[in-house]
Design goal:
The chain is α/β, with parallel strands linked by helices and 437 residues long. It contains 13 helices and 15 strands. The structure holds pyridoxal-5'-phosphate.
């Protein structure tokens, strides 16, 4: 390692210390006996093109060489150190079984994890409750949103996620709401989206609840949440934000969103083990979300009564501090810059190629690691399955078809920190050949 790099890198001997330092919480309470972990730590701002640095980051992941994986939106790969911590936690739980969870870990262990999530997210621990993922978080927020009266409008858009759309339509059947679905413009832009919501609010003056997706899993577009929310608040419309993809992919804290309700994943861009997320309710608004199924484990004044997951995989929750440590030690801004750079690497080579439509704009703030494309005019499911299949079979590049976009199906590309610029050059070359360029 050159001295230049070594000045900007150091190996921290304990994953827990990084989060402990930034939150005041201690991992010892969350995960007693935590073994030493190695976490790559960036000191200050790192250039997204500093390949010597980023190859060290890529080395933190154990990646199968079988295929070039550019479908990293499904869930995030854990770093080797997070994986080791997860395995250690699984063994710990199996060794001590109920005695550990009832006597040692118990509520205090969970409370420490909650405190660490809250500190990194910029909110209070009593404003979050741990869930099994964003779906569980958002289903509880949407279906238990109390102020909705029969005849009120609950609004969502084509770019929102399927399970959250289903929860919104449930409000029609169970709560008598008038559920309205709108389509985002294509090509999409920040202003186009603001105009679309302004028009939708004007056309639906009884709107009371709005679902927004921070980063669309369909196209990769980053919604201007705070601005739409400001427009909504002026009309007494509450916003529930689906932040399943955004936290960990782009750099923000919950207060930046300017909303009172949101659902998050920790197993996507935060790199925690599968099966963990959380819901957020601003403290002053807790009474506006009902308890989950009349939960009696916690008092109605406690946000933990807003979700009841039952007996779940505690090892993944116990591993969250290690994932947060890996994230904070690298730095959200550094991570965002590198993910955007990798995305730009392929998009810049094909954006102007005739026959390829890129579905997320290049405006700063409007994209992260994910961007979808469509071969011009090829809008059907079969068309896009064929494109993804050709990439997979002929070029050994893994992507995924996404539907649900009003203007037609597409193929999603989502880069990860273990991807190299050459990987994206390979994708760009493949796309150019497929487009006949
Ligand atoms: C935009 C969006 N919202 C919500 C979810 C649900 O997340 P999970 O299935 O992890 O609960 C996903 C999952 O991919 C998503 O992409």
């Amino acid at each position: 390692m050159s001295t230049d790099i070594s000045r900007r890198l150091f190996i921290n001997s304990s994953a827990s210390m990084v989060v402990a330092a930034s939150t005041g919480a201690t991992l010892a309470a969350a995960s007693p006996g935590a073994s030493a972990q190695t976490v790559l730590t960036a000191v200050g701002k790192i250039s997204p093109t500093d390949e010597a640095f980023w190859s060290k980051v890529a080395d933190q992941y154990l990646v199968s060489p079988d295929i070039l994986n550019l479908e990293n939106g499904y869930y995030g790969m854990m770093t080797k150190s997070v994986m080791a911590e997860y395995q250690r936690n699984i063994e710990l739980l199996n060794l001590h079984s109920s005695y550990y969870l009832r006597r040692t870990y118990d509520d205090s262990g969970l409370a420490a994890v909650r405190a660490q999530i809250a500190a990194v997210a910029g909110v209070l621990p009593e404003e979050i409750a741990i869930t099994r993922g964003a779906t569980e978080a958002l289903q509880n927020l949407i279906t238990n949103y109390k102020p909705l009266k029969p005849g009120d409008v609950a609004m969502y858009a084509d770019l929102d996620y399927d399970s959250t759309q289903y929860a919104m339509t449930y409000l029609k059947e169970r709560r008598g709401a008038n559920v309205v679905s709108i389509n985002m413009p294509e090509p999409v832009s920040r202003q186009g989206v603001l105009d679309a919501y302004a028009a939708a609010f004007a056309a639906n003056p009884k709107t009371r609840l709005l679902l927004l997706t921070h980063i669309s899993h369909r196209t990769g577009f980053v919604m201007p949440i705070a601005e739409i929310s400001a427009m909504a608040k002026a009309k007494n419309i509450d916003v529930i934000v689906d932040a399943a993809h955004s936290w960990g992919q782009i750099d923000f804290s919950i207060p930046d969103l300017n909303v009172d309700f949101a659902g998050f994943n920790l197993h996507k861009w935060m790199g925690a083990p599968l099966g963990v997320g959380f819901l957020y309710i601003r403290k002053e608004r807790l009474a506006d979300i009902d308890r989950a199924f009349n939960d009696g484990d916690w008092d109605a004044s406690d946000i933990r009564s807003r979700v009841h997951s039952g007996t779940t995989n505690s090892a993944n929750v116990m591993t969250v501090p290690a994932a947060l440590a890996a994230h904070t030690s690298l730095g959200a801004a550094n991570k965002q810059a590198r993910l955007r750079y990798l995305r730009d690497r392929w998009v810049s080579q094909v954006r102007n190629i005739k026959g390829i439509d890129i579905l997320a704009p290049d405006a700063p703030g409007s994209y992260g690691a994910i961007t979808s494309f469509r071969m011009t005019g090829k809008v059907s499911k079969a068309d896009n399955l064929a494109v993804a299949s050709e990439l997979r079979e002929k070029y050994k590049i893994f992507t995924v078809r996404r539907g649900g976009v009003a203007a037609g199906n597409c193929v999603r590309v989502s880069t990860a920190l273990f991807n190299k610029p050459a990987d994206l050059d390979r994708l760009a070359q493949a796309l150019k050949s497929m487009a006949g360029a």
